[in-house]
């Protein structure tokens, strides 16, 4: 918070004077007029002539019901931001509140600054109206195109988690968050109420939730709005909040009550922060929450065709749907729009009158112009240390073993230590930081925690920057809000359970893709996943913990935004981590094991291999330069890489005359055609690596059909045979997991024998020996409970 800002330096204790309330009402009416105009009007924006059908859009799209409440909140946030000199952003949770937020950004001037062709005059107002939910225009929800937004309104439930993510390590920022009736019923939002137990009043900003209850969703009552006030009050107090209730349908009374509530809430926040920052108070604050109950579709039509509309679900979208064809509806629309008295709100040129703008902040304090809502403006690069300090020595491939994520933990700990002053890096995860071998982080920071502590607890800290909570939704929401406001982070998660956030990452990818098309949106740090405790080493937890499909989900999405990496050892993981932590505007998925893994590449070789994304490991194969290989053994993922190299070792001994090429893939998008993904290979590159006419046996970390989908257009696709996970799992031994899914070394050798032309007859005894080894394996593990020594003790011969 700037030195001169004082959250308590607001209006008089008895609330705003009548003149101030009149100005607030004028702004609110102007915003309501603009919101309704966007839904209906194609022209005649100031109603200078009576409305005619040709003034109305041919398709009426948009959502009116939530707009008056959002306009009310925006109006009153303007007042306190200007009066108190606050830096603030607002997360607009209700799904299709676009008309309101667009209206307010146009009123404050930030919209016209970003889009100069939509000026703050009559012509600009007409363009604002015309473009809304119109071909070539802007969406009906709060989207990247909306100045001041950092939250996609297309899917409900994430607003409060995003708000807390934005507040973390932003001590001078107020993050208001409007939560609608509908999204208040979702699982992610319900969990997000607990985020207040992680907010540090010293180093973090403040979140002011505003629970807006207008009674209905699309056509059903909302649960929280039907709770008696006392019951809802007790619920919110149980979450650790101090509720402030504002209820009404008389504009004058609601303006007065909401102004008082805003002042009371901000005074409460200021006192809590001052107590923590200046007096050393460590008790967890009970932060305020405003519960705002106003009618759905407030100030719109009371009834239409004899049916009640205002205050009911019928006002959710377009209250008057037949205005082009029904003269009565058209006249009713005109009466509705003129009820806001636009001639008092806009001058003859269509510019907002001074009274309307009396409480609008200036410059970057406007909600539509806050740099925190365009986080790339504030981004500082991470101080990434030299990888040489953390790399493991590799004198020859496969001679040593390390836990890749533990090696990565040392790098992350140094980054955490080096950002102690800037506080722009966090690691989030669902209770798995230690389990995932990243506990070196605790030498640099603790785990964020504001609730009670017991003597047995470890590594908890009020100012900690590792964040653990057993909700993948909340972890994802925190990190999205954190990166969208310009900071860096990593989400560490068990591979099988990251699916819980499939919908959330989908929305974030859509946001990034759209933001990349807007020149005024600056690139933000990437959202980085580390998926570990993966499918092939969930032998102890069993079938429920085995699912590698998140990669499939992500690779279906916008290719310019998504990246997927499967580093095969510790040094390649370091190289990949260095890359993704430097990147901007991506969703990076890194899949790496936490169990001891062979070290295949030294750091220089790892860097070169990761830069290629896919390449031949000459030392692992038996081909020479005189002729093409007889077979290509390809792999992606740490366990598949080990099995391919073990298979190559077997082939070297059993079929020494066979020319084998070993190809490892780190960057999965390299398999796509160049025209489909910026990392994709040209056909010439792909053909040189995998050949066009030789069998390719591909051992892949996940579901095998993904490789076929990525490579289906390649010339040699008919020769491609993929082994991977096929939903065969249980609690068993590590090697039995790959055997059950036919990904083991013996099966890979059998595939080579089956697929190399002419080899089947000549190598029948080799194939039989491999099948016998699989049979021997089954008997061994059932007797001894562990893998056979020839598997457990295997290492690359060098």
Automatic annotation (TrEMBL):
<dbReference type="GO" id="GO:0005975">
    <property type="term" value="P:carbohydrate metabolic process"/>
</dbReference>
<dbReference type="InterPro" id="IPR019790">
    <property type="entry name" value="Xul5P/Fru6P_PKetolase_CS"/>
</dbReference>
<keyword id="KW-0456">Lyase</keyword>
<dbReference type="InterPro" id="IPR009014">
    <property type="entry name" value="Transketo_C/PFOR_II"/>
</dbReference>
<dbReference type="Pfam" id="PF09364">
    <property type="entry name" value="XFP_N"/>
</dbReference>
<dbReference type="GO" id="GO:0000287">
    <property type="term" value="F:magnesium ion binding"/>
</dbReference>
<feature type="domain" description="Xylulose 5-phosphate/Fructose 6-phosphate phosphoketolase N-terminal">
    <location>
        <begin position="18"/>
        <end position="377"/>
    </location>
</feature>
<dbReference type="Pfam" id="PF03894">
    <property type="entry name" value="XFP"/>
</dbReference>
<dbReference type="InterPro" id="IPR029061">
    <property type="entry name" value="THDP-binding"/>
</dbReference>
<comment type="similarity">
    <text>Belongs to the XFP family.</text>
</comment>
<keyword id="KW-0786">Thiamine pyrophosphate</keyword>
<dbReference type="InterPro" id="IPR023962">
    <property type="entry name" value="Phosphoketolase"/>
</dbReference>
<dbReference type="InterPro" id="IPR005593">
    <property type="entry name" value="Xul5P/Fru6P_PKetolase"/>
</dbReference>
<protein>
    <recommendedName>
        <fullName>Probable phosphoketolase</fullName>
        <ecNumber>4.1.2.-</ecNumber>
    </recommendedName>
</protein>
<dbReference type="InterPro" id="IPR018969">
    <property type="entry name" value="Xul5P/Fru6P_PKetolase_C"/>
</dbReference>
<dbReference type="Pfam" id="PF09363">
    <property type="entry name" value="XFP_C"/>
</dbReference>
<dbReference type="GO" id="GO:0016832">
    <property type="term" value="F:aldehyde-lyase activity"/>
</dbReference>
<feature type="domain" description="Xylulose 5-phosphate/Fructose 6-phosphate phosphoketolase C-terminal">
    <location>
        <begin position="594"/>
        <end position="796"/>
    </location>
</feature>
<dbReference type="InterPro" id="IPR019789">
    <property type="entry name" value="Xul5P/Fru6P_PKetolase_ThDP_BS"/>
</dbReference>
<dbReference type="InterPro" id="IPR018970">
    <property type="entry name" value="Xul5P/Fru6P_PKetolase_N"/>
</dbReference>
């Amino acid at each position: 918070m700037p030195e001169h800002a004082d959250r308590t330096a607001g209006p008089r204790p008895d609330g705003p004077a009548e003149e101030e309330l009149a100005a607030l009402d004028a702004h609110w009416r102007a915003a309501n007029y603009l919101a309704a105009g966007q839904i209906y009007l194609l022209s005649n924006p100031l109603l200078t002539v009576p409305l005619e059908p040709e003034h109305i859009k041919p398709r009426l799209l948009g959502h009116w019901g939530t707009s008056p409440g959002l306009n009310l909140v925006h109006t009153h946030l303007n007042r306190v931001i200007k009066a108190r000199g606050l830096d603030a952003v607002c997360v607009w949770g209700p799904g299709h509140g676009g008309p309101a937020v667009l209206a307010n950004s146009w009123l404050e001037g930030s919209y016209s600054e970003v889009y100069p062709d939509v000026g703050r005059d009559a012509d600009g107002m007409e363009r604002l109206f015309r473009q809304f939910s119109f071909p070539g225009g802007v969406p009906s929800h709060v989207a990247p195109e909306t100045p001041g937004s950092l939250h996609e309104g297309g899917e409900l439930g994430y607003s409060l988690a995003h708000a807390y993510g934005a507040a973390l390590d932003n001590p001078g920022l107020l993050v208001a968050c409007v939560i609608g009736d509908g999204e208040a019923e979702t699982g992610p939002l319900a969990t997000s109420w607990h985020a207040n137990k992680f907010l540090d009043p010293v180093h973090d900003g403040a979140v002011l939730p505003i629970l807006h209850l207008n009674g209905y969703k699309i056509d059903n009552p909302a649960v929280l709005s039907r709770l008696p006030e006392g019951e809802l009050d007790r619920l919110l107090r149980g979450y650790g909040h101090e509720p402030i209730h504002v209820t009404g349908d008389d504009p004058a009374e609601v303006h007065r009550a909401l102004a008082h509530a805003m002042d009371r809430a901000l005074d409460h926040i200021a006192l809590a922060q001052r107590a923590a920052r200046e007096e050393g108070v460590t008790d967890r604050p009970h932060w305020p929450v405003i519960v705002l109950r106003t009618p759905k579709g407030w100030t719109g039509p009371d009834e239409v065709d004899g049916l009640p509309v205002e205050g009911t679900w019928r006002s959710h979208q377009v209250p008057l749907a037949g205005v082009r064809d029904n003269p009565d509806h058209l006249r009713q629309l005109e009466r509705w729009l003129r009820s806001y008295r636009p001639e008092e709100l806009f001058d003859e040129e269509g510019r907002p009158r001074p009274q309307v703008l009396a409480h609008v902040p200036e410059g970057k304090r406007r909600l539509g112009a806050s740099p925190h809502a365009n986080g790339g403006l504030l981004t500082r690069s991470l101080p990434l240390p030299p990888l040489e300090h953390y790399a493991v020595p590799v004198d020859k491939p496969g001679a040593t073993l390390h836990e890749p994520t533990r090696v990565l933990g040392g790098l992350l700990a140094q980054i955490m230590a080096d950002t102690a002053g800037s506080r722009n890096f966090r690691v989030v995860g669902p209770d798995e930081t230690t389990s995932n071998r990243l506990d070196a982080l605790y030498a640099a920071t603790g785990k964020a925690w504001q609730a009670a502590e017991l003597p047995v607890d470890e590594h908890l800290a009020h100012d900690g920057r590792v964040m653990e909570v057993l909700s993948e939704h909340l972890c994802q929401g925190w990190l999205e809000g954190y990166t969208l406001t310009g900071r860096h982070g990593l989400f560490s998660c068990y591979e099988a359970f990251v699916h819980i956030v499939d919908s959330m990452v989908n929305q974030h990818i859509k946001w990034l893709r759209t933001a990349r098309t807007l020149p005024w949106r600056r690139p933000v740090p990437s959202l980085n996943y580390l998926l570990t405790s993966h499918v092939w080493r969930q032998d102890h937890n069993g079938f429920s913990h085995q699912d590698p499909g998140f990669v499939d989900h992500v690779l279906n999405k916008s290719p310019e935004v998504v990246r997927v990496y499967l580093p095969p050892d510790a040094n390649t993981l370091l190289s990949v981590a260095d890359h993704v932590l430097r990147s901007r505007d991506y969703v990076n998925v890194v899949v790496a094991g936490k169990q001891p893994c062979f070290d295949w590449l030294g750091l220089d070789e790892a860097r070169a291999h990761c830069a290629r994304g896919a390449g031949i490991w000459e030392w692992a194969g038996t081909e020479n330069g005189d002729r093409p290989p007889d077979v290509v053994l390809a792999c992606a993922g740490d366990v598949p890489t080990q099995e391919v190299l073990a298979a190559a070792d077997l082939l070297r001994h059993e079929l020494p005359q066979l020319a084998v090429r070993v190809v490892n893939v780190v960057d999965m998008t390299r398999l796509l055609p160049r025209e489909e993904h910026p990392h994709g290979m040209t056909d010439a590159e792909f053909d040189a690596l995998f050949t066009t006419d030789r069998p390719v046996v591909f051992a892949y970390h996940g579901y095998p059909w993904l490789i076929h989908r990525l490579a289906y257009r390649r010339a040699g696709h008919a020769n491609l045979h993929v082994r991977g996970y096929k939903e065969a799992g249980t609690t068993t031994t590590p090697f039995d997991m790959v055997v059950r899914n036919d990904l083991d070394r013996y099966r890979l050798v059998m595939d080579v024998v089956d697929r190399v032309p002419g080899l089947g007859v000549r190598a029948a005894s080799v194939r039989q020996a491999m099948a016998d080894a699989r049979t021997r394996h089954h008997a061994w593990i059932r007797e001894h409970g562990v893998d056979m020594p020839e598997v457990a003790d295997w290492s690359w011969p060098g």
